Amino acid sequence: MITRDQLYVALRTGVASLLSVATLNAIGHDRAFSAIVAVALVTDGVPERTRQRGVQRLLGAVVGTMVGTSYQYLGASNIWLMALAIVTAILLCSLARWPHGMRIAGYLAGILVLHHPAAVWSYALDQFIEIVTGVGFAVLLSLVPYVPIGSLSKES
């Protein structure tokens, strides 16, 4: 059986993904995969946690972008370099005491190393815009009023 809490999280995630993709499409962005991933990664079962951790997740996106693009210059893209970039991005977030930015940082660093277009910084900016859009809508949807199940009990 699906609980109200589970339904609420599913609806917030779905609507935030829809709004992220629609917004990116409206501004001419031709893809939105990372925005959807960002929404799924940052939407927490407790809306307050989604909001409280939003800044760290955005900082994680900055770290992931910088690490991923920097590692492009270390040599040919391969799975070993990808793994090293992920480890580096996660450890940098840990050192900065941004534990809630680690997943976004690792994800972004990894995909930037694996995907190696000629215009790496342009691709990185596109990915960063997608991530920020996804995180932004996840945080925005966490503001939708939430009524915990326990407060819905019937009065006798």
Strand content: under 5%
Query: How many DSSP E strands?
Result: 0
Average residue-wise pLDDT: 89
State the helical fraction: 55-70%
Q: Return the string of H and E elements.
A: HHHHHHH
Shape: globular
- Radius of gyration computed on alpha carbons: 17 Å
Number of helices: 7
Oligomer: single chain
Distance between the termini: 26 Å
SS-derived structural category? mainly alpha
Characteristic key phrases:
single chain; 156 residues; mainly alpha; 70% helix
Can you walk me through this structure?
The structure is a single chain. The chain is globular, with a radius of gyration of 17 Å. It is mainly alpha-helical. It contains 7 helices and no strands. The protein has helices at 4-26, 33-42, 47-52, 54-71, 79-95, 102-114, 120-141. The two termini are 26 Å apart.
List the helices and strands and how they pair.
Blueprint: H1 4-26, H2 33-42, H3 47-52, H4 54-71, H5 79-95, H6 102-114, H7 120-141
Helix pairs in contact: 1-2, 1-7, 2-7, 4-5, 4-6, 4-7, 5-6
Summarize the structure.
The protein is an all-alpha fold.
